[in-house]
Amino acid sequence: MTELVAGPLPAPGRSKVRRRRRRRTNPLIYVALVAASLFAILPILWGVSTSFKSESATLSDQGWIPQVFTLENYRLVLFESKIPLYLGNTLLVAGLTVIATIVIAIFGAYAAARFRFRGKTASLFLILMTSMIPGIAILVPLYFLAVQLGLYDTYAVMVVVYTAWQIPTVIWMLKGFFESIPDSIEEAGRVDGASHWKVMTRLIFPLAVPGVAAAAVISFIYVWNDFLIASTMISSDDKRLVAVGLYNYLSQYGIVWGQLCAAVVVSIIPIVIVFVLMERRIVAGLSAGATKG
Amino acid sequence: MAIAVHPDVEVDVMTTNEAGPPERPRRRRGRGVGDRSPLGLSWGLVLPAIVIVAVVSIFPIVYAINLSLHETTYMEVGDFVGLEHFLRIFTSPDGLAEIGRSLVYVVGSLVITVPLSLALASLLNQQVRFRRVFRVLILMPWVVSQTVAALLWKWLVNPDYGPLGLGDLPTGRLDFLANPVLAMVLLIVVNVWISYPLATILCLASLQTIPEELREAAEVDGAGPFRRFMKVTLPLMKPTLFVVAIQLTLLYFNMVTLVYTLTGGGPLDGTNLLSLSAYKQSFEFFNLGLGAAYSVVLFAFNILFGAAYIRLLRSDRND
Known about the structure:
The complex is a heterodimer of chains A (293) and B (319). Chain A is an all-alpha fold.
């Protein structure tokens, strides 16, 4: 089959078939892909492996597959640590952030994609420019503000800040999505006598569900993984988010690697599942949101 | 042949948006709808977004600039001290060293991540078996937070209990976190590990907009795989690579969490970056004035990088 490759090429149709065949047989590509996959998941696999070892085995058994499997670490993490509480807090804050972000951004994105009005360019520029302001640069003022407004150490302050930080990207993503929906749908709705508001909420928003889902997942994962805001705006242990909780696990109990790895596994399983299920949508959303920003 | 098509396609790469309808008719009709656009409704729709970003992002950056010019004692804002805090950053050996380390970190991470992402995107763009499995596995680090990445890698390279046997190598014990230079190397490796998936996703999206016919045409003209890549693929991907480079530069330059959780700036300040100092001065030492000055310097660098890249991109497109 590989001899064919060197031969002269006649019709374009045949050349396509030939190309595909040659690619499938090039083993170097598979070697590279496997190597890249290993680099990507090796640290995670080592964590998973450790999470099934007993505390003494983490210091003696350096094999990738535990000699003795134990679920003790998971029992401790799930029933005798604060990790489930942190996970609940994170779920709450991330969920509220996603709802607030989508509700605010979907209207802004629709107006940006469909209406022309005075000041549109300036206001869009203003919103998008704020995504250039690094979080670390405004952390101190936000801290001051939160303390003065009495919002320090509340879920609310986290939700507000995360929402504001996600809005520029999500508006950009959804704007692109709305622009890919043909105008003729709105025109038909308007001809039938529906108001702008009705056309938008009844006709267009339902069509935007796939784009909204991708944006929602991306925002959710952002909050799930954030450390900066969660570590500076919250002081009481009962309101802690999981990223900070994991880090404190390190200092609090000395380094108990088995338990720590079990906690890490528990905290990343939900997003790994979402990622595997929605990989295609997430990738499309990320590339739409980022390449245009 | 390929070169003749080039300008058109480049425009396409910049404006393509999923499977949108043809550009021109849509735009003209969009204007039609616009003429009847309700001004009140439009503003009502955009206003909530403007209000929240103004309160959470724009007001604080102004506040930070003001704070950086004042003396502070914990939460008390004291006398106006002008540029004293900034002078401290730009004239002290510590401040200059932090700027230097930040540049090493950014450049070191960029020169690995960009080519790596391009290579991975090309691999994932091939017609291979189990393509989806490889895609999910290779992009997996995207879901891992900086905190978790730091914990996992710390454990992976542990010289005594890690699986890599770094404690008894023939060349001696290799403890990444005990040596300032090695700590920076590890920091860059972990940083590459968490940031290459996003860059790969962007490169892959751009690769997929390049028509297969172009590469086939180049093949017909007798170009080998390497020449095809250099003469057809790379020029078409240039705008995307610029965007990726900007995004990564800003991400790296502002990064706090990974550095804080992996090395904490140590050992011997070997990984103490500008961004980490902004965080530590503010929230560990509570020098809020100085911390704010660090923040303003970071913000200024962000604008500088952003502007520089946009300039490069413009001059490149005018050629």
